[in-house]
Amino acid sequence: MLETTDLTIRFGGHVAVDHVTCRFEPGTLTAIVGPNGAGKTTYFNLISGQLPASEGKVELDGEDITRLPASSRTRRGLGRAFQLTQLFANLSVVENVRLAVQARCGGGMALLKVWLDHDEWIAEATDLLQQVQLADKRDVPAAALPHGDQRKLEVALLMALGPKVYMFDEPTAGMSVDDAPVVLDLIRALKARGDRTILLVEHKMDVVRELADRIIVLHNGKLVADGEPAAVIASPVVQEAYLGVAAEAST
Question: Is there a contact between 229 and 31 (Cβ–Cβ < 8 Å)?
């Protein structure tokens, strides 16, 4: 469903993502790991359209989307949650989600359509807020939410868009021990559906071990490992990248 071929970006003389070729299938959750500065978030930005590729291509359902802006990729089914929350800060929690539902349903500026469909959009938004345990804060401005609740709201926005591909960039970063399980349970539920492609950038290896069907490892912008979690975590290249343990020289 989603594929990158020789995907590359350069910043001056620095190659942040270096000819990464990878295919992601529906019904699988792939964890993207690597040390700080490995290029994980930059790779996400190239896939979702926040950054333009220097070389290579991104394909979704066989269509080359490399030159499309982020908004067009979203309409084609790429959904992205960020390390830093991307919310309408001055709108209420429920209005944030309602706008995402409206965008997915194609509700533009036609006043009659907006009036007729508004209650349905609000009902769907309310259901999503219940799933992320924010229904009791539906009328609170997004800016007034604590960090953990803002992360949960961003997941609700992503779910409201109903994408084919879910991209989570450290979804529990900065969350409390009470809030993090809510987001992880939502990701588990999305995975259990079996019809979505899920990409997860995550530093917490216990989370990766539990959720991932597959792990790919980036190091200095290159794809250095790809496979089942147990085998990848035990590989010398991952031990070296994460722990500074010198990998044995090949003989």
Answer: yes
| Helix/strand/coil for 177 | coil
pLDDT digits (tens, 9 = 90+) for 83-99: 545 688 889 999 999 98
| CA–CA gap between residue 39 and residue 32 (Å, rounded) | 10
Q: What does the pLDDT read at residue 95?
A: 93
Residue with tokens 């429920």: 94
User: Containing H/E element for 12?
Assistant: none
CA 24 vs CA 4, 78, 109, 170, 224: distances in Å: 9, 12, 36, 18, 16
* Closest by Cα among 188, 193, 169, 217 to 50: 169
CB neighbour list of residue 30: distance below 8 Å, 6 or more residues apart: 24, 197, 198, 199, 200, 212, 213, 214, 215, 216
Maximum distance among all Cα pairs of the chain, rounded to whole angstroms:
72
What mean pLDDT value characterizes the chain? 87
The DSSP annotation for 75-127 comes to: HTTEEEE-SS----TTSBHHHHHHHHHHHHHT--S-HHHHHHHHHHHHHHHHH
Residue type, 103: A
CA–CA gap between residue 58 and residue 64 (Å, rounded): 6
pLDDT digits (tens, 9 = 90+) for 1-39: 899 999 999 999 999 999 999 999 999 999 999 888 899
pLDDT band at 242 (very low <50, low <70, confident <90, very high): low
List, for residues 206-219, the tens digit of each pLDDT value. 888 889 999 999 99
In three-state secondary structure terms, 68 is: coil
For 117, the token pair is 């469909």
Q: Kind and range of the H or E element at 220?
A: none
